[in-house]
Specification:
Blueprint: E1 12-16, E2 19-24, E3 43-46, E4 51-54, E5 71-83, E6 87-90, E7 95-97, E8 113-120, E9 131-135, E10 142-152
Antiparallel strand pairs: 1-2, 1-3, 4-9, 5-8, 5-10, 6-7, 6-9
Length: about 160
């Protein structure tokens, strides 16, 4: 491939026909050659980055204010459009992969998928109830909505 704008870089991620090649080096002339010289249909090259979305602190209008009360997210449903690979978690806690059910049987390995993903999360009680959705893979993520199951109560 030719990527003059990435010439001389050794931290390039290349997606070739849906397969990810990380930490690739682009020559000073802007050219990268794969060991397997088979013709590729779709190639994208760029510098990796991470997208993160964090919800605002949780408010429950039915109960009046819950500000100052501890909250824990137990499950998150994320609505996605044309997405592959993403993670979800609570606040600053650990993130969990949002796997497509078809990934388990090897049917959607390289496809973009749309729909809802229900993800159990292991959140602990905190005072915010924020949900984080993150994407660090070199694939699209269009986030349409975040819906969470939450407990509000004592620590």
């Amino acid at each position: 491939i030719t990527a003059v704008h990435l010439a001389g870089r050794n931290d390039v991620t290349i997606v070739r026909d849906g397969v990810v090649y990380e930490n690739q080096t682009i020559g000073a002339d802007g050219v990268h050659t794969f060991a397997n010289s088979a013709t590729a249909i779709d190639v994208i090259a760029g510098i990796p980055y991470t997208s993160r979305v964090r919800t605002l602190p949780f408010v429950d209008a039915r109960r009046g204010t819950v500000k100052g009360n501890p909250k824990r997210v137990s499950r998150v449903t994320v609505s996605l459009l044309d997405t592959r690979g993403a993670q979800v978690g609570m606040g600053d806690g650990p993130l969990v992969d949002m796997k497509d059910p078809l990934d388990e049987v090897g049917l959607s390995e390289t496809r973009l998928r749309s729909g809802e993903r229900n993800v159990p999360v292991r959140g602990t009680y905190d005072y915010y109830g924020e949900v984080v959705v993150s994407q660090s893979q070199p694939f699209p993520m269009t986030l349409l909505g975040i819906f969470s199951e939450m407990s509000v109560g004592d620590l």
